[in-house]
């Protein structure tokens, strides 16, 4: 059975002289429309089934299973939307927060924190790194999925431990190359940017506005806009249009629906809007795109 993983809440974990904030963990697939964006956080992409085709800065990477992609903070990226290509991949977004220097003095000297510092320095020096996984990342992801499915006694602790094991294992790959969340809502820290995108995925085909999202999140529209742009480096309206265009591609590939019907199904106010944006973004018309993808069959 294929794993289903989705963690929309922030989790803080101790790691040596630092605290790790796990911002977002999820398994995604070829049905996911991912817009070009960036985070002020580190991110790991781990292909599970099929090659991961992703735009990183201006380069298109084709990453097979058994490898891992590290993205440094501020790196523009987005998977290439290909609804006709089967793929599944695991993502983890995370940050590091160092402990108080005075607290560090009370701890015994250890080489491992220095190694972690070197790893993070290396990650920040380049926009991305692709390395082979030699430390059973796929197996750890399977264990995470099993814990989240079964919800047996102590599953929260097990998942946290597995998250940490996964991160450490992925970092080991870099070193090799060189030589249900707690039920208590009061303790949950919702990852608002991620929840905004989930809402957009669910309602892209409706006439949604920034106010609708704000109402759903119980936050002001201005704050929603500020959070979204700070986290993803793009605007709400551009992202919504990207979602709609990508889902329009899906209909163009899988159906013979008219452009008018597709425009309505994906939430555009008119077929003219769809045609104009599609040409601007893709560089070809909807008719040309449909002919192109049909030839693949």
UniProtKB/TrEMBL annotation:
Gene3D superfamilies attached to this UniProt entry: Homeodomain-like, Jelly Rolls
Domain of life of the organism encoding this protein: Bacteria
Pfam (any one): AraC_binding
Keyword set, alphabetical order: DNA-binding, Transcription, Transcription regulation
InterPro entries (UniProt xref): AraC-bd, Homeodomain-like_sf, HTH_AraC, RmlC-like_jellyroll, RmlC_Cupin_sf
Domain HTH araC/xylS-type: 194-292
Keyword hit for Transcription: yes
PANTHER family for the chain: ARAC-FAMILY TRANSCRIPTIONAL REGULATOR, REGULATORY PROTEIN POCR
Name of the protein: AraC family transcriptional regulator
Source organism of this protein record: Alkalibacter rhizosphaerae
């Amino acid at each position: 059975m294929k794993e289903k993983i989705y963690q929309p809440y922030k989790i803080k974990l101790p790691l040596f002289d630092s605290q790790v904030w796990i911002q977002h963990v999820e398994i995604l697939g070829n049905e996911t429309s991912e817009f070009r964006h960036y985070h002020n956080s580190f991110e790991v992409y781990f292909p599970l089934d099929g090659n991961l085709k992703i735009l990183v800065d201006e380069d298109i990477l084709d990453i097979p299973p058994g490898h891992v992609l590290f993205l440094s903070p501020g790196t523009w990226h987005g998977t290439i939307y290909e609804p006709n290509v089967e793929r599944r991949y695991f993502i983890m977004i995370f940050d590091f927060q160092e402990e108080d220097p005075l607290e560090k003095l009370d701890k015994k000297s250890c080489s491992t924190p220095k190694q972690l510092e070197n790893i993070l320095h290396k990650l920040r020096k380049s926009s991305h790194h692709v390395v082979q996984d030699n430390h059973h990342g796929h197996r750890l992801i399977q264990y995470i999925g099993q814990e989240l499915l079964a919800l047996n006694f102590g599953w929260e602790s097990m998942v946290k431990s597995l998250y940490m094991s996964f991160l450490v294992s992925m970092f080991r790959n870099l070193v090799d190359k060189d030589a249900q969340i707690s039920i208590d809502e009061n303790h949950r820290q919702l990852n608002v940017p991620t929840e905004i995108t989930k809402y957009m995925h669910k309602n892209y085909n409706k006439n949604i506005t920034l106010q609708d999202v704000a109402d759903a999140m119980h936050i002001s529209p201005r704050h929603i806009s500020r959070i979204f742009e700070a986290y993803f480096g793009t605007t709400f309206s551009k992202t919504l249009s990207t979602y709609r265009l990508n889902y329009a591609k899906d209909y163009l590939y899988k159906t013979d629906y008219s452009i008018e019907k597709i425009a309505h199904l994906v939430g555009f106010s008119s077929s003219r809007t769809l045609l104009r944006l599609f040409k601007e973004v893709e560089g070809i018309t909807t008719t040309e795109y449909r002919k192109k993808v049909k030839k693949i069959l």
